[in-house]
Design a protein that fits this description.
GO molecular function, one term: helicase activity
Number of strands: 23
CATH topology of one domain: Arc Repressor Mutant, subunit A
Shape: elongated
Largest sheet: 6 strands, antiparallel
Protein name: Helicase-associated domain-containing protein
Number of helices: 27
Distance between the termini: 43 Å
Mean pLDDT: 78
Keywords: ATP-binding, Helicase, Hydrolase, Nucleotide-binding
CATH architecture of one domain: Orthogonal Bundle
Organism: Candidatus Treponema excrementipullorum
Helix content: 40-55%
Structural class: alpha+beta
CATH class of one domain: Mainly Alpha
Length: 777
Amino acid sequence: MSSSRDEKKTMLSSHAQNVLLWRNALTKLPDNHFFELMRIYLGEIKTPYNKQNLIENLGAFLHKPEIQQRIVSLLSVEDIQIINAIHYLTAPSQNVLSRFFAKTLSFAELYEALMNLEERLIIFRYTHDDGSVLFKINPILEQVLTQFFSLRTLIPQPQDSTLTQRNTVMPHRPLPAISPQFLATIFAFVQQYPNIFRQDGSLKKRSIQGLFQLFSVPEETDSAPLKTEDSAYNNSETGNPVSKASTSEREKAEKFFHNVLTALKNLSLLKTTKKGLVPDYDLWMEFAKLSEENQQLYLAAAACGWETKNQLKKRAFQASQLLSLCPSSGLTEDAFYRLEFLIKNSDAFETLGLATTARSPLQRAPGIPGGAPARQSRLSQLINQAQKRENTPETEPSKTEKETSITSEAQAISLVESLIDLGLLCAIGTAKGLSHTQELLYTPTLTLSDFHHQSAGHITLDTAFRVTILPGLTLKQLLPLVRFMAPIQFDTASTFEITKNSCIWAFEAGLEPHSLISLLESYLSYPLPQNLLVSLEDWFQTYSAVTLYRGYVLHVKNNRRMEENPLLSPYIFKKLADTIYLMNFEDDNQAEEIIAQSGYENSGTVKRPSEAFSPGSFYDIPRIRTQDLLSEAIPSTAPADEQKIFFHIMEEKLYAMHVPKQQEEVLLSRIHRKILLTEKQLQPNSVKPEVLEAFGMDFLGKVHVTETAIATETMLELKYSAPRDGKEVFLGLPLAMEKYQGDTFVVLLSEPDKQRITCSLNQATSVRRLRGAIFKE
């Protein structure tokens, strides 16, 4: 009970803080804006006046149920989308909103929509402690607006979809799925060909050819792209006909393998040595303990670019949420990008159990100090527990750092692009997207193995030492096998070969023939070929005839049995003689410390820092089933007829007042901008005449509009009949006017790219001043 009271108290406290923030934003308004706002909503202001009392009166006006109901009834679909974006992105800047709505609203359209919501008092802007200007929903109206909060308004389900895949559960994909057998084959390939990358990070031509041959990527052709059905790969052994692929398909294949290998490298599963990349077997075995789904999520996260292990885990959580939130009907590519943007930038996902940070949207309140600590979701608790286990606390990004695009400098590609490239999102058709054009429709791909995992009967071995591995083994079962095999052909049943060189890799890791024989026998239902047994012994004798060691040699007096020392025995690489051991220490510091802990006189003081990823640093990622969040009904606006009736009544009242034409036009504009909510607000004396737009030959009018825009620091939009630099419309903040050779030019700081440009007023077909913000920065 007390916990419930504490939560309620925290919420009330947060609401009160937001009300104070809204009032503070009003008090900082320039006097002309402040009094214009008060006259619009409260009527004529009597003197003497008190600003705080006026703000109290405005708050009381907005608290009236009939006023709140009128505000709600006048909301448009676009209004609701912007309100939801501000709610879920938790106090975003205009720059963040511009990127979020890039596919549906131009900068000018979004700018005017935000200005309109501000003058309707639905949202307000304030300055954060770091100087950034952010938007929030008016806390007085937040409760009545809650009914419209829905992710579905921001991530709409596809419309007019056309499926091109017959099987939407396992869509066709010409490239291999990321499965245990695929990863084991990659492990064996890198073990055989370690020098796979160029200096610039791209794959070497020889590596590409080897991968294409191993994974049966069709030959290149300039004809039509690879068909999605009845395609046969080139296989010299089976005699299948040669399949052809377009250049773009082979480019996709190259990108796929590059991303997979880059991800493995970023996870430290492949480590750089003088010979090239070498698989870290111990870390691979730790990775293999994860579920297949979690392995795929880590790879998708790591393919985006190198990051610290905490950030990679966080990115893997985000990938999990992207897949979990996708409805069964799929999402368009743009919708997935928008969803990724939300997951990465929204504290509001905390309340849905999806957050990637540990702060609640109600507790955060940017710019307000002293908030109570937020109650963490299960997901945040898991992240924090992982961080505590590693003793590496995660630093909280600043507001500015959080406001990034989907990709950052450390992130080469977005999560959505990574999931698509790796085949974890697969195109199943087309649908009408955010911009109302046909886009590819994607759905998560079911790549998990449907085969029952058994401990035997999944490999065959012939007298030529060729091993066929049938599907069904886990990665943890496959890695010890492929450790001493060379890959020949990847397929549903993949082929490997036991060779002298492949066995030497195992011998170098400390394995002996009896270990390899025992492992093979555990998966076979018949005896091993005699010639293989003989070959293994011969190869081992050749390998061990001359052995060059490098490491720490431990000499012990009194013939002590070091193998029985629990601290030292794990580090014994080889016993060279009765009192001489070759030790597997990483460096001097570790050697001295282990010896000291074992009870000997030598001691060390400094530990060697751990690697970016060390065994035990992979943690399971919980998959939260949340598809219903995007399947809920979209909140509906008031019927269009209701709005038309209200506008008609207000217009009739206005025309009956017989006010001067200029005042009538301004009041009519306020009606259609949904600022006037009651008949009492039809006050002619609240009108300040202003010219917002000038056209064609009205040169003086265009100059006047420009001068006013410069004086009031408001945006200016210029349109031209013929394109200039590929554009017909220019938008920006006017800085100055210049006269040159019989023409007048305006210097603009263009939006959204912030470039200084010069535009002619004479040649412009129209010059329009965009209405400025009531809440000035």
